[in-house]
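Ticket closed. Logging final result for DedA family protein.
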Amino acid sequence: MDWLDLSADAGLAGLFAASFLAATLLPGGSEAALFAFLRLHPDALAPALALATAGNTLGGMTSWACGRWLPKWRRLETLPQLATLRRWGSPALLFAWAPLIGDALCVAAGWLRLGWLPCAAFMALGKFARYWLVAQGALP
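Final structure:
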């Protein structure tokens, strides 16, 4: 198991990358990466939470940007995520961490031209809360 004994710096870089990619339409399990990292480096809680949250939020904002650049097609107007976002606005992005609907919420928020700063803030808050819960299960 020596191959698993990564330095904390290398593990943090990998955690950031995994978190970023997991927030895009690519499959990935950033929660498992955070859990494993914290089992090996429990003293690195603060940087792990910060980098996982930042990476996942940047990935979500990448999806937001993709939605922002999509043309306004009439057929998309009936998507359920759009109704949610129209009703709740950027606070709905507290659920951007959720499997399946999270990516769609981010793309839909961009497509609706919701402001990037409130979207990023609510996205980060929801993602941080999820990672914090995962961390609580990983720490001794």
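The two ends are 20 Å apart (CA to CA). No further action required.
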